[in-house]
Amino acid sequence: MTAQLIDGNALSRQLRAEVSQRVANLKARGITPGLAVILVGDDPASQVYVRNKVKACEDTGIHSVLEKYESSLSEAALLARVQALNHDPTIHGILVQLPLPAHIDAHKVIEAISPAKDVDGFHVASAGALMVGQPGFWPCTPYGCIKMLESIGYDLKGKHAVVIGRSNIVGKPMALMLLQRDATVTICHSRTADLKALTLQADVIVAAVGKRHVLTADMVKPGAVVLDVGMNRNDEGKLCGDVDFEGVRQVAGWITPVPGGVGPMTITMLMVNTLESAERSTG
Ligand code: NAP
In this structure, which topology does domain 140-263 adopt according to CATH? Predict the structure, then answer.
């Protein structure tokens, strides 16, 4: 079997076109969705992520404000900026790019963002809303994975999903979203005793670890859906995921590539969340 590709670029284009249309509808009613992106310091990867987010805003008609600060910015000054943006009616989403410099408590900063503008979905209130099935913002990366499953018409009901990784921004919210769609979910992590025994039972596997070749062909049930969240560099310095793509695609039914899979979907879902925040602000 050769797996079919779930193309994150193509799906992103389609979803961003829908976002653009809804943004235009809101603008016609006098509301322009606005996203504030705060970058502290000069981490090269963060600069690329932030640039891509601002570009996606431009492409979809969302107003963006990029605030860049020296790494010496104090925690108090950053908290004050977040508070000001919480009260700014032209801003519907606030994103503080992580990681922050060591002297700033990232948790404190995230918790300072109004849950109504927490378009990254990292606030404890957003996590709690997801946990109990109430409306709130879903973290963009796992939300993008759900959209990818929807795009192939995959019904999760009664399926066994294995999530590898238990971070607060990917693994745990991913597991909750799959559970909400009636999958039976297993969460694996670095202390899982026999990963292969579990992945071999899975109808859906989400790899969110940050290590190459965590998932190889011998660990995958024929026909399974494999979503690769990982972002790593191979020996040639090229971007690759957690999944041994060439091997696993011979066994899986569906697979996401890296690059061109989950990555673009993450930014697309940030646009969706920002748009929805603006729509909610109209009541
Ligand atoms: P993280 O916070 O470092 O979490 C990694 C998780 O993997 C942890 O739960 C860890 O277990 C688990 N793990 C480590 N080694 C393992 C192993 N050998 N077997 C099974 N589980 C193992 O990372 P993250 O923030 O969730 O990100 C994961 C990956 O996704 C990274 O490559 C990141 O760059 C990428 N990512 C991509 C996007 C995107 O847009 N495509 C967005 C976010 C993240 P413990 O909890 O036991 O330590």
Answer: Rossmann fold (3.40.50)
Site to substitute for ligand 1 among 138, 189, 194, 213, most atoms within 8 A of C-beta: 189
Contact 164, 226 (CB under 8 A): no
**CA–CA dist 255, 219 (Å, integer):** 14
The pLDDT of residue 1 is above 80? no
Over 90: is that where the pLDDT of 137 sits?
Answer: yes
Catalytic status, residue 97: yes
pTM across the whole model: 0.98
In ligand 1, the atom with minimum distance to the C-alpha of 191 is 47
Closest CA to 255 of 149, 184, 105: 149
Q: What is the mean pLDDT of residues 202-209?
A: 99
- Kindly give the distance from the C-alpha atom of residue 208 to the centroid of ligand 1, in angstroms, as a whole number: 5
The CATH number of the domain covering residues in 30-114: 3.40.50.10860
Tell me the per-residue pLDDT of 165-200, one tens digit each, with 9 for 90 and over. Answer: 999 999 999 999 999 999 999 999 999 999 999 999
